[in-house]
Amino acid sequence: MKIISINTSLPRKISFNKKIISTSIFKEPKNCELQVSKNGIEGDRQADLSVHGGLDKAVYAYSYKHYAHWSKLLKKDFSKNYGLIGENLTIDNFDERKIFIGDEFRISKVVLKITQPRIPCYKITIKMNEKNFMKYFIEHNFLGTYMKVLNEGKIQKGDEIELINRESQTMSVFDISKLIFSENNVEAMKKAIAIPLLTDEIKQRFNERLVKLGHYDTI
């Protein structure tokens, strides 16, 4: 695997539904070496840290292979629109079915750990200029993944990405995504909650659903 594009942005204000909102979803490709710190990539900052960013969601990665799917669905060529859905790292083939919570990847001297799938908000519909895009995004489970920075350093476009560690107690990013949005599988939710490296944000979602279903043993 390798990095096709590194994309960053600072928050900017846009007009939407007669309101002014702040967003960092309009990422732009950077053709230079960039520093990766515990808080994210140089030149990148999130507008709303309550839902994006932070140590567990410092870097957001997405598969370039998904671009073809969105191009076909929306009948528009996105092949050169790097940072398409607001990702920091556009990776040639980063399949959520083959990537697992807790996976550690090395890029040059940087080490990143998978923490959770992306939970999309309405701003992705603005970015894609399609009112139903958040629904499509969730239905297809092409959500991409957030990553925590274990080792800081510099990266650049074209760098190779190497899987260096996989935990024994884990689930794929795809299965976690499916569980978040479309399944009430009690045993699978309990299994997910037991994954040490899954974020508290996602565990809380599953705990709340389990309580509603009458299961209290994971609280």
Mind explaining what this structure looks like?
With 219 residues, this protein is of the alpha+beta class. It has one domain: M1 Pyruvate Kinase, Domain 3, CATH 2.40.33.20. The chain is built from six helices and 13 strands. The chain has helices at 65-74, 123-128, 133-140, 173-182, 186-193, 200-212; strands at residues 3-8, 12-16, 19-23, 28-29, 34-37, 40-41, 59-63, 89-91, 104-107, 110-117, 145-151, 153-155, 162-165. The strands form three sheets. Strands 4-1-8-7-11-10-9-13 form an eight-stranded mixed beta sheet. A hairpin with a 2-residue loop joins strand 5 (34-37) and strand 6 (40-41). Helix 5 packs antiparallel against helix 6. It starts with a strand and ends in a 7-residue tail after the last helix.
